[in-house]
Amino acid sequence: MGNFAANEGLSIFVILVWLGINVFLFVHFYMAFLIDRFYYTRVILGHALSWARAPAACLNFNCMLILLPVCRNLLSFLRGSIQCCSRTAARQLDRNLTFHKLVAYMIAFHTAVHIIAHLFNFERFMDSQLMVNSTFLPYVLSQIGNNDNKSFLNPIRSNETNPTIVMFTTIAGLTGVVITLALILIITSSMEVIRRSYFEVFWFTHHLFIVFFIGLVLHGVGRIVRGQTPESLEVHDPKQCESYFETWGKNGTHCPEPDFAGNPPMTWKWVVGPMFLYVCERLVRFYRSQQKVVITKVVMHPSKTLELQMKKKGFKMEVGQYVFLKCPSISHLEWHPFTLTSAPEEDHFSVHVRIVGDWTQALYTACGGDKTTVLDAWTLPKMGVDGPFGTASEDVFQYEVVMLVGAGIGVTPFASVLKSVWYKHVQKNQNVFTKKIYFYWVCRETQAFEWFSDLLQSLEKQMTEKDMSDFLSYNIYLTRWRDTEAAHFRVQYQAEDDPITGLKQKTRYGKPNWDNEFSTIATQHPGSKVGVFLCGPAALAEALGKQCLTHTESGTEFIFNKENF
After folding, report:
1. Less Cβ crowding at N or C end of the chain, within 10 Å?
2. Using one digit for the tens of pLDDT, what is the confidence trace for 110-139?
3. CA neighbours within 13 Å on the CB side: how many for 493?
């Protein structure tokens, strides 16, 4: 329970508060439309009125939240501000995209309820107009306002139309259709398979959020949901006057004809603050994108991995941070996230780009990856850089014992960490709180190890010379290999250096036994807080997350951190 509370306690508390607010708003606004002011509205619509308005309130709340988790500059500022006070609270900001997705699912749910309820409402409004019988109260209510068309209750003003026409000829109906279509496109294009295989589709359709928010703000302008005015309620009590509807407004009656008015639009009050913050966010990004970036070096690594070393005036970073890159010669609109692989102590910043899609392939070509000759510096493409932004890996040096787990190209944030470790020890920095690092790198192919094997060899040599070989423990795993490679490995296994990485530490074959690894670390560091940092796939994250919760040997706490961007 201690490990569970340390890892998930605050996250669960935040989710429960968020769900609680949604429940409260739903119940509160459901009951708010059961008052006398909406008595006659319910005569026509029944409880479908409350079923439409309650999710609308929840939509306002969640649309207020949806933009905040993607304000990267705001989150980086908050992370740096609260990190000194609460490491646990800072870790919650690393789950911003998870919360963003949860809020999106909640918006989709309440949108569905809201639409279904209003479909019933439009049908009942239409049925009330079609009754053509003054002995039915819904019909009488629908005829109010026919003369001056000011104080009406039924927004469908004629029996010669239908709900479909009304849907596309009223502000509420038209904006409702537009924002629903935008929401469907945004959510469906965000599916993992589309986002990874067709990132451009995800990127461009996600910007339909602009259409969504404009439609959302305008949706209530038509005031289609109407209720009795306060002045009318003073002289016309609906519970007393309902039975006398045939004589309303006639001489000698005590029940004048009721007056109705629509609710003023409220959505803008909920979303104006987050929209302003997001506009400021985009202005900051635009300003950064216009700053000059110089590519100082391009390195072509095996397995079609491109390393870009760059410089930018005023650029400052911490270990494990990431940036967004734009290449205007490829696309003026597309920004892609990449983890920084350089250390803060270096005079440049670098990223490793694995060529897996159209944009990365175009960047590879623009940087001369498909050429055998070296390009002149002035022929290299111009780049836009936004960032850096904080991630979980920033907290590495705040733990006495650290586990770094990288899968394939997911090793990149830990390249920055290991480089920084090397520089700190070269510079004899005595302020390093971390006493032990366990580094795990899991790869499917041997070529991937060449990405920064030079760095690993330098670190290993440096630690040996300084008699600090126990500080950094390498655990490198190869999960796939060809038969020809296996034969070579068997022949070279007894060699002093590993045949794959060139390290003294031998490469292991197959997948790690995480249960044994966690048990061993817990036994060797009793009573410690161990920071577990992962940059890798969801399946590996799930496995490590479970290990962090279940291993409590010797009072050790494993705190799980995962890269999300």
Report:
1. N
2. 999 999 999 898 888 888 888 777 678 888
3. 9
Angstrom distance (rounded) from CA 117 to CA 111:
10
The residue behind tokens 């519970």 is 239
Token pair 């970073």 in the structure block, residue: 317
Alpha carbon separation from 476 to 157, 324, 411, 445 (Å, rounded): 73, 29, 11, 12
What's the half-sphere exposure (Cβ side, CA atoms, 13 Å) at 480? 7
Rounded CA gap, 200 and 206, in Å?
10
CA gap 480, 485 in Å, rounded: 10
User: How far apart (Å, rounded) are the C-alpha atoms in residues 319 and 420?
Assistant: 7
The residue type of 366 is A
The Cα 507–Cα 498 span in angstroms is: 7
**Which one, of 403, 393, 439, 437, lies nearest residue 547 by Cα?**
403
Over range 256-280, report the average pLDDT: 90
Find out whether 48 and 120 touch, Cβ atoms under 8 Å.
yes
Q: Is the peptide bond before 537 cis (omega within 30 degrees of 0)?
A: no
Say how far apart CA 475 and CA 494 lie, in whole Å. Answer: 18
> Using N-to-C axis directions, what is the helix angle for 48-65 and 10-32, rounded to 10°?
140
Tokens 């026919």 sit on residue: 146
Q: Sheet of 293-301: strands edge to edge?
A: 293-301, 305-312, 349-354
Nearest CA to 540 among 516, 562, 518, 509?
A: 562
Find the length of the chain: 565
Question: Average pLDDT, stretch 71-81?
Answer: 79
Scanning 434-560, the segments in alpha helix (DSSP H) are: 453-465, 483-492, 514-524, 538-550
Contacts of 305 (CB under 8 A, 6+ apart): 352, 353, 354, 355, 409, 448, 451
3-state DSSP percent of the chain in helix, strand and coil, to 5 = 55, 15, 30
Lowest mean pLDDT among 139-148, 240-249, 511-520: 139-148
For residue 397, what are the CA distances in angstroms to 341, 424, 488? Answer: 16, 11, 39
Q: What type of residue is 83?
A: Q
Query: Tell me: the pLDDT tens digits for 531-558?
Result: 888 888 888 888 888 888 887 766 788 8
Pairwise CA distance, residues 559 & 267, whole Å: 40
Tokens (6 digits) for 456: 């690993």
Q: What is the mean pLDDT of residues 46-62?
A: 93
Q: For residues 436 and 211, give the distance between their C-alpha atoms in angstroms, rounded to a whole number.
A: 51
Query: β-strands 226-228, 436-443: how paired?
Result: unpaired
- pTM for the complete prediction? 0.79
Structural domains of the chain, with CATH: 1-83+91-170+222-271 (no CATH), 293-389 (2.40.30.10), 393-482+496-562 (3.40.50.80)
Q: Report how far Cα 75 is from the mean position of its chain's Cα atoms.
A: 12
